[in-house]
UniProtKB/TrEMBL annotation:
Pfam family, one: CheW
UniProt-recorded name of the protein: Chemotaxis protein CheW
Domain CheW-like intervals: 127-265
Family matches, as InterPro entries: CheW-like_dom_sf, CheW-lke_dom, UCP020479_CheW
Upper classification of the organism: Bacteria, Pseudomonadati, Pseudomonadota, Gammaproteobacteria, Chromatiales
Source organism per UniProt: Rheinheimera aquimaris
C-alpha cells in the first residue's frame, strides 16, 4: 500500500510540473506579443505627431516647449489609438460590424497576407468522449474520435536497431502493429529496471489510422468531457504530443496526430 501511495504522489508531481510549464510558456508568449504591440503603437504615434521643425523657425529657448508639445501630442494620439483598438476588439468579439458602431472612422491599415487558420479537430468543438487508460500509475486519455481500436496484447517480435521505447511488431490478423513501450516513451527519465519489471501490459491502444499502438496496463473507462474540463495547450512548447491536461482527473490528453508524427520520426517525449 505504501508503494502505491508513493507512486501516486510521483505521478501527481509529474503532471503538476507539466501544467506549470505549459502555463508559464503561454504567459511568456502573451507578454511578448503585448509588449511588441505597445512598442509599434508608440512608434507610430510619435512619428505621426512629430512637427516639421526647421533651424530658422525654432529658437534655442523654445526647444524645450516644442519637445513637451510633441510628447503631449504623441501621448494623446497613443491613448486615442488604444481606445479605438479596444472598442474594435470588443465589437468583433460580439460579432457586430465595426463600421456600423464606431463613431470615429478608423483608417484602414495595409492588408497583410492572410494565413489560413488551423482547422479545429472534432473534439475541440463541444462535448467529446475520451478513453482513459493506465500506464505505470500514470493516467493517459485519447479522444475516442482519434482512437483506431483496442487489441489484447499478443506475441511481439523485437527488431534490432530500433529506439529503446520501440517494443516490437505485433501481428493482428494481417496487420503489423508497431507497439510502443508507453512508459519508456512518456517517462524516459523514470524508466529503470525496477519500473520495467513491474510493468504488466495487457492491451494495445491504436492511434488513428496508423500502424502505431500504445501498450497499456489497464483500461479505466470512457468519460464525456466539456471543453472547460481541459487545460488546452494553445501555444508551441516542448510537448507537441500533448493536447492538454484534464484538470479534474489530473490526466494527459494525447494529441494523436502529433504523437504519430514523432513516432514516425523515431522521437520520444524528450524531443
Amino acid at each position: 500500500m505504501s508503494n502505491l501511495i508513493a507512486s501516486q504522489k510521483v505521478m501527481q508531481h509529474y503532471l503538476a510540473a507539466l501544467l506549470t510549464e505549459e502555463e508559464q510558456t503561454e504567459q511568456v508568449v502573451l507578454a511578448e506579443q503585448k509588449k511588441q504591440q505597445l512598442n509599434e503603437l508608440l512608434s507610430q504615434a510619435v512619428v505621426s505627431t512629430s512637427p516639421a521643425v526647421t533651424k530658422t523657425s525654432v529658437q534655442p529657448d523654445t526647444k524645450a516647449q516644442v519637445k513637451a508639445d510633441t510628447e503631449a501630442k504623441a501621448l494623446a494620439a497613443l491613448k486615442e489609438r488604444f481606445a479605438v483598438a479596444e472598442k474594435t476588439q470588443q465589437l468583433q468579439q460580439r460579432d457586430v460590424p465595426v463600421a456600423e458602431r464606431l463613431a470615429t472612422p478608423v483608417k484602414a491599415e495595409p492588408q497583410q497576407p492572410q494565413v489560413a487558420a488551423p482547422v479545429l479537430k472534432d473534439y475541440r468543438q463541444g462535448k467529446f468522449q475520451a478513453l482513459f487508460f493506465d500506464v505505470a500509475g500514470l493516467k493517459v486519455a485519447v479522444p475516442l474520435k482519434e482512437l483506431g481500436g483496442i487489441h489484447q496484447m499478443g506475441k511481439i517480435s523485437s527488431l534490432i536497431g530500433k529506439p529503446e521505447w520501440f517494443k516490437g511488431v505485433m501481428l493482428y490478423r494481417e496487420q503489423k502493429i508497431n507497439t510502443v513501450d508507453t512508459a519508456c516513451w512518456v517517462m524516459p527519465e523514470k524508466y529503470d529496471a525496477m519500473l520495467q519489471e513491474k510493468l504488466n501490459y495487457q492491451y494495445v491502444i491504436m492511434l488513428g489510422n496508423s500502424d502505431w499502438g500504445l501498450c497499456c496496463e489497464t483500461l479505466i473507462n470512457t468519460y464525456v468531457l466539456e471543453q472547460d474540463d481541459v487545460k488546452w495547450r494553445e501555444v508551441g512548447g516542448k510537448r507537441p504530443w500533448m493536447a492538454g491536461l484534464i484538470k479534474k482527473h489530473m490526466c494527459v490528453l494525447v494529441d494523436v496526430d502529433a504523437m504519430i508524427d514523432l513516432l514516425n520520426r523515431g522521437l520520444d517525449i524528450s524531443a
